[in-house]
Amino acid sequence: MIPGRPVTLADAPAIQALIDSDPETYALLEGEPVRADEAEQLLREVTPGKRRFTHLLDELALIDLLEGYPDEHTWMLGLIFVAPGARGRGLGTQLIDAICAHVRAAGGRTLRLGVVPANTGARRLYERLGFVHVARRTRTTRAGTPQDVDVLERAV
Hints:
- The chain is of the alpha+beta class.
- It has one domain (5-155): Gcn5-related N-acetyltransferase (GNAT) (Aminopeptidase).
- Helices cover 31% and strands 31% of the residues.
- The protein has helices at 12-20, 23-30, 38-44, 91-105, 120-128, and strands at 5-6, 52-57, 61-66, 74-82, 110-115, 132-140, 146-155.
- Helix 1 (12-20) packs across helix 3.
- The longest helix is centred in the middle third of the chain and has 15 residues, at 91-105.
């Protein structure tokens, strides 16, 4: 089971508050400053033909997970954002472990995620949890600027 509870647009204020609790880290992840409607825009994103799971855990963490991307056996962790006050206590590890268990139970074989090179703390966590580097990609941020992202994955 994916940790937390599924969200709706009614949860946008709580999600926005979580994101706003650490605008520097969120800007690092997204490559630009947090928008006032960041949560609403996140909740409105759609990937045609794919099931998306966005969950909020007690206003402490946000998870955004995409089933079957880039292939039917791989799931993509688009976002995991832990509140600053909840970091360093093992919550990220617990969340990744639970996500992997969910993916495995749903028939997935691999969990993939992207991490910006400057997010060294997250990178250390992912590597400790068995993720390996598979590619470096350059994506375009909403502002149109290029941002490098390392693609990591692990078997679930």
